[in-house]
Design brief:
By secondary structure, the chain is of the alpha+beta class. Strands 5-1-6 form a 3-stranded antiparallel beta sheet. α2 crosses α3.
Length: 103
C-alpha cells in the first residue's frame, strides 16, 4: 500500500506520470514495469490511451474530453471510469497529482 494519503482528484488537479516506468505495447496491451521496484502493470483498452495522454501533464477534464472525442461519447459519461482508473494508477505509484497529495 502506498504511504501517501489519498485525497480525491478534482478538475483542478494536474496529473503527471511518475518517473521510472518503462513501457512497451504488446498487441493491444501496454505493458509497464517500474525500474526500481520491478512492479508490473498491464493496461488494456482505454487505460493504455490514458497513459499516452499523460505524456504531458493534464487535468481530469483534459483526459475526459480527449477520450470523449476519440470514442464519440460524452465527457460526463467517461468521467467516473477515468477517475477510478487514475485512483488505481495513483495507488500503484504510476502517477503524481499536483496539487500534491499530502504525505
Amino acid at each position: 500500500m502506498n504511504s501517501r494519503y489519498y485525497v480525491p482528484m478534482n478538475d483542478n488537479s494536474v496529473i503527471v506520470r511518475a518517473d521510472g516506468w518503462l513501457t512497451a505495447w504488446i498487441d493491444n496491451d501496454l505493458m509497464m514495469m517500474h525500474a526500481e521496484s520491478n512492479f508490473y502493470l498491464n493496461l488494456s483498452g482505454s487505460g493504455g490511451r490514458i497513459w499516452e495522454l499523460l505524456e504531458h501533464p493534464c487535468t481530469v477534464p483534459d483526459l475526459c474530453n480527449a477520450l470523449a472525442s476519440e470514442f464519440d461519447i460524452q465527457p460526463e459519461t467517461v468521467r467516473p471510469e477515468v477517475l477510478a482508473f487514475l485512483d488505481q494508477l495513483f495507488l500503484r505509484k504510476a502517477i503524481d497529482v499536483d496539487p500534491p497529495i499530502l504525505a
